[in-house]
Amino acid sequence: MQKLFIAIVLILCNASITAYAKTPKGVLVVAQSLDDIISLDPGTGFELSSVQSFYNTYQRLVQPSPTEPTQLIAGLARSWHSAAHKIVFDLKPNATFASGNAVRPEDVIFSLTRVIELNQSPAFILAQLGWTAKNVHQFVKKTGLHQVTISWNKAISPQVALAVLSAPVASIIDKKVAMSHAQNSDLASYWLKTHSAGSGSYIIKRYVPHKVLLLAANPSSPDGAPKTPMILIKNVPDASTRQLLLEQGDADIAQNLGADQIHSLAHQAGVTTESLPYATVYYLMFNTKASTALGNPKFWQAARWAFDYKGIAHDLMRDQLQVHQSFLPIGFQGALHDNPYYYDPRKAQQILQHAGIEHPEFTLLVNNQPPFSDIAQALQGSFAKAGIKVILQQAISSQVSSQVKQHHYQATIGFWGPDYFDPHTNASAFAYNPEDGQNKTIAWRANWHIPTLNQQTLAALAQPDPAKRTQMYQRLQVQVRDNSPFVIGLQTRKLLALRNNVKGFIQGSAPGMVYYQNVTK
């Protein structure tokens, strides 16, 4: 074990990418960008790298199957039964956190209610149940030694409520450990930004912002001890450098590669490349309050014809993206398969002229990682042919995320993956903005005011008939596709590469669904 820690320290301190020809035994080294991380607290963190950590350091009452995410499996709940507006969960009686503390109903109550009380970005997921800081304690109660009852006051079926409770934000936190580090009334959010207090396969051993995230095995996890003692995730912002690290044997897995890197690695000895189906859509979003033009529906319409869908998906990304223009990705019940828009810059110009929009331009705030930066440059060229000037402003992911959440942007390229596997997860992001301070959705980030769509989204959520519910989501998709500040254009595939000796790694169909528990090398 001492040799293992010495090897890890060398990696942590290593400034040269050529220092190792082989990663240490017992340590899985992952090269990816960690610049998006704002917090590793499941009650506040909502960034891709943060969510990936939650799947490995925490558990939920129920959770999606890694290989069949539409199927929910037991997490910390041994069993459950539902009735109108409530679900009763029986906890696994011998489940413990990494600290050794028993998992109690009090921990479930603490974990779920603190999300609402903190009211950070992911809180809107649980707030859909009608929970507020004033009433949430009425709906999450201990009803037995190992039992907790969760209820809600909204017209939501138990099936949807279960899906909501499988989201990473519903991760169960060790209350005793967390509150021992609380400061004032922060509910331990400061400490949990860089530490973990869960029951997952791993614990956070060390986190150095913008440098490294080190996970250590939790042998007492209810899911069983993981097969690899350490997961070392190195922050490597440049995709080409991630490729080089993998080629040289200095990394076991290279995440978030671009099409060029995958093409280059395809025939590299000792390396396997993967292009995996991914339930993620990419979209161009306008801040409707940033300027008069950006709030004009005619400008949104012109942008739909200035977006070079096929050029980006086929020519630029080499078919690692596919054209998809609706907010439900292919694979979801009710997803639309038709794509009525295509690249027609002349038509875009005509729309702008008829609307009296002269000298259109906007600043596009974009993540400096592929494929965002690549898509942004392509859009800059395609919009220019439509007479629209696009000024690129590149930044690291966390900066982009913060500015968008603060409405300090004109336009951005975003991507959205499901928080749970029910159509409402995306409808509640793109077609719902109740403006109540509890639900900071994608529509909220766009400053888009949509009382009618809000009503339709809630009606679809409450509809008990599956066929009727599917039709309602299809109508919502058409409305958002045709008249919104979102130009949804692409659905992606996950691009990664790993050394041939790495076995058991699972990348699920949602962005954050990364599983290290069964990895060996």
From TrEMBL:
The entry's keywords: Signal
InterPro entries hit by this protein: Peptide/Ni-bd (IPR030678), SBP_5 (IPR039424), SBP_5_dom (IPR000914)
Protein name: ABC transporter substrate-binding protein
Signal peptide range in chain numbering: 1-21
Ranges where the Solute-binding protein family domain occurs: 72-435
Superkingdom of origin organism: Bacteria
Pfam family name, one: SBP_bac_5
